[in-house]
Amino acid sequence: MRKITNEELGRPTPEEFAAREKMPVAVVLDNVRSAQNVGAFFRTGDAFAVESIHLCGITATPPSREIHKSALGAETTVAWHHAESTGECLASLRAEGYCLLAVEQVEGAVSLDEFRPEPGRKYALVFGNEVEGVSQQAVDLCDGALEIPQAGTKHSLNVSVSGGVVLWSFFARFIQSAIFAALKIPKTDRKCP
User: Fold this and answer.
1) CA distances from residue 45 to 136, 139, 154, 156, 170 in whole angstroms, order as listed
2) Which of 9, 66, 94, 127 is such that its CA lies 20 to 30 A from the CA of 43?
3) DSSP classification of residue 84
């Protein structure tokens, strides 16, 4: 088995990526304190072709050396916006027709493994800060919540890890439902021996 080079992966240029269809998902970061976590969201957002990232309140914004360190340049390929408050951002996204979902452990949350995005619907996924998670004010503005099932004693994940888990889940489901066919994501024929 030989490692595949970056050139062989056939990745789009930044210009090609900008012109491609995106997953109908916006990421909202509710006062995320760590610029490296913000950078990780940019890198994950690029990998899974999110429409945009919304940086709210005290969340760091590009240009930033700390964001760039973990984003590896994805802060230039993923559309982003800053809002003074998460509430302002969520009101704007609701007006644009997004279904607002907090990624948080709250009463009535749907387990991520049971959630199925609806074709033709746009989603805004709200991720909270490293200390308190998604604020109660933001939760109150959401249409629902998703919870990542966990088996350990901590019942929490780093916010950027949560982002990776949730965004991969959405991406995988959109691929399965053929909503994302326009991306022409290369399929692998490699099988486990």
Assistant:
1) 25, 22, 26, 21, 12
2) 94
3) S
Are 131 and 33 a contacting pair, CB within 8 Å?
Answer: yes
Q: Rg of the chain over CA atoms, in angstroms? A: 17
**Nearest-angstrom CA–CA distance, 128 and 65:** 22
Q: What digits encode the pLDDT tens for the residues 73-107? A: 999 999 999 999 999 999 999 999 999 999 999 99
Closest by alpha carbon to 23, among 147, 187, 181? 181
Closest CA to 159 of 136, 123, 132: 132
pLDDT digits (tens, 9 = 90+) for 125-169: 999 998 899 999 999 999 999 999 999 998 889 999 999 999 999
Backbone phi and psi for residue 52, each to the nearest 5 degrees, phi listed first = -165, 160
What is the value of pTM for the model shown?
0.90
Question: Mean pLDDT across the chain, nearest whole number?
Answer: 91
Enter the tokens of residue 115.
């959630």
- Starting at the edge strand that comes first in sequence, how are the strands of the sheet with 110-111 ordered? 80-83, 50-56, 23-30, 122-127, 98-103, 144-147, 110-111
Alpha helix positions (H), the chain: 14-19, 35-47, 65-71, 86-95, 136-141, 159-176
